[in-house]
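Students often ask why inverse folding is considered easier than folding. One informal answer: many sequences map to the same fold, so there is more than one right answer. In these notes we will look at a single instance of the problem. The structure comes first.
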């Protein structure tokens, strides 16, 4: 992993195109313009699946009789907990409602703006006792025990999902949930049909909050959605961001490519060099982030085989 600030990165990009001499400091107005371009580039990259470093697991609690949920700032998918923060460690001592998961934005009295849960520690997320414990956050701070609210970021898309219907000290029971298109959701005749847990979800990526539509109307369960998320925008020039190996060079040369027109750089050799390194940087990240093709799975009824024991309960019969 590599750590840098936006100012470090854009200084290198400006040097690469000859807009900044060695050892020269970036003027504030130049830094601000390049900073905006950097964040715009991250927004563009968020639409390229293979440039995203990982798939985010979003966990949320299903409420009986509710089949439509919103996800994003101040939406349904999130939690209310009692917790405190010391340094970059969030300690959750009580869960009032909802479910916790990595990637949620944290707010509350004394909590720094932009605080995000970056990884699990002793707390493992969800809506049960596993949610209690410690989590890592991105901003170092001190917050005494208080009521903390979290929300999940609106995803770009949902790749797959399952519902956890049993959670106990002896184990769990999960069932796959199909991610369907708007056309498939439209042909469902009774969208309010009740069921023990959902079998399908249709995600509408509206703004500023996305909408999750489940079918059938569940009575309970803990949803686990595996999503592609927007790359996190920098909030200031002195922010730090932890990046996967190779990402710094890719961002450096792609930002340089986007800055070239603003500085009137029209030398063919320079343009070709910057474009070459920018393309190579994206290619390296895509090769690292690409996933192998999933193996096909057939229902036993289609293959002519029969289930001869009760082991089907481990996979929900799928």
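Output (designed amino acids):
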């Amino acid at each position: 992993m590599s750590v840098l600030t936006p100012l470090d990165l854009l200084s290198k990009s400006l040097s690469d195109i000859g807009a900044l001499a060695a050892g020269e400091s970036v003027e504030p107005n130049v830094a601000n313009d390049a900073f905006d371009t950097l964040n715009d580039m991250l927004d563009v990259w968020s639409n390229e699946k293979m440039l995203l470093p990982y798939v985010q697991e979003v966990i949320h609690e299903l409420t009986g009789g509710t089949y439509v949920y919103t996800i994003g700032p101040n939406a349904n998918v999130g939690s209310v907990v009692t917790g405190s923060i010391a340094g970059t460690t969030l300690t959750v001592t009580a869960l009032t409602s909802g479910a916790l998961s990595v990637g949620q934005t944290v707010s509350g009295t004394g909590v720094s703006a932009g605080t995000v849960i970056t990884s699990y520690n002793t707390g493992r997320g969800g809506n049960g006792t596993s949610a209690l414990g410690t989590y890592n956050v991105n901003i170092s701070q001190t917050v005494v025990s208080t009521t903390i609210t979290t929300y999940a970021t609106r995803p770009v898309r949902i790749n797959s999902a399952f519902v956890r219907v049993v959670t106990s000290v002896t184990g769990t029971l999960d069932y796959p949930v199909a991610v369907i298109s708007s056309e498939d959701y439209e042909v469902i005749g009774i969208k309010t049909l009740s069921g023990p847990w959902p079998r399908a979800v249709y995600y509408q990526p509206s703004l500023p909050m996305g909408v999750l539509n489940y079918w059938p109307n569940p009575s309970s369960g803990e949803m686990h959605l595996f999503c592609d998320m927007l790359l996190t925008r920098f909030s200031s020039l002195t922010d730090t961001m932890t990046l996967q190996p190779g990402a710094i060079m890719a961002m450096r040369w792609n930002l340089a490519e986007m800055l070239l027109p603003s500085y009137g750089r029209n030398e063919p050799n320079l343009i070709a060099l910057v474009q070459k390194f920018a393309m190579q940087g994206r290619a390296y990240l895509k090769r690292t982030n690409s996933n192998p093709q999933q193996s096909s799975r057939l229902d036993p009824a289609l293959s002519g085989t029969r289930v001869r024991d009760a082991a089907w309960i481990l996979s929900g019969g799928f």
